[in-house]
Design goal:
This protein is of the alpha+beta class. It contains 12 helices and 11 strands. The strands form 2 sheets. A 9-stranded antiparallel sheet has the order 5-2-4-3-11-8-10-9-6. Helix 7 crosses helix 9.
Amino acid sequence: MSVDLLDAVDKEILDLVQKEIPLVAEPFKELAEKVGISEEEFLQRLNKMKGESIRQISAICDTKALGYKSSLVAARIAPDKLDEMAKVFNQHPGITHNYKRNHDFNLWFTIAVPPNSRFGLEKTVEILGEMANVESIRILPTLKLYKIGVQLDVKKESEANAKAAPTYTEEMRQAAMNMELTDSDIKAILELQKDLEITSRPFDVLAANAGMTTDELLGHAHKLVERGQMRRFSAVLNHRKAGFRANGMGVWNVPEDQANEIGLKMGSFRAVSHCYLRPTYPDWKYNIFTMVHGRDMEECESILQAIEDETGITDRITLYSTKEYKKTRVSYFTPEIYEWEEEVAQRLGL
């Protein structure tokens, strides 16, 4: 459903479900009460928006807190080969987001590999780069997290310079990385990461699949949130269908001695969904990355300009995605990555 056809109640529902789905047996009943409508109407409206404005409803886990290694990667590929080579990268199950962007580094993707990966992160990226015949490839891991969590302003209530404190921080991630996962936790994650059915008691099926009662599954879910291994359980919106047709990756050249102070300031902007400190290279000077989403490029630029005005950092560029090659979620503790690694090892004689 186009955002133009959404009424005020639909937009309120979208704002609610992207923030949090309550981890209770009847979550949509609780949300319906907040909106002031019946559970039946809430479910009808949600089902109508599913697959359009709403991409998926599931656990949003922190990749590193689950022991995975992950990174943003930038590749420079001959423009006439880009579409073809993007398919090479897309075959890796741990690549979840893959975009063409308006820069000499024209392919940007995120990748995650499990803790017991055969190759590890760096070797996997090297192998992929060779398979895709890249001109250059740069691993850009998170050195420090200032903010993570998309909260689209569907009702358009906020100004470009509006602030919102991060709900997940570097300190929370570091603490979560020190927590061990039990076999039961992993069973719970395998189910909670699945797209949630829009029914009155949606967790019952997931619990049965995990061999647990609903209360036991929800108990694990609450523990995962408390420990920071799950950032939240919520809906992920289809940005374009929700009216946000532009996503701009604002990258900034910030003096090293100011990076932490400036990163915290940039992450405090409500419209910034992701803010990270990343490494630089001789051919890449930008160290702080801010992701913003707007209804158009003009809205993205107004947000980035507000950040520039407040921080005084002017050495920046904005990388817009001009083509989406892949967008999905990491599937944790499933066999696909190991199968890819085995197949590639045999093919390349590794």
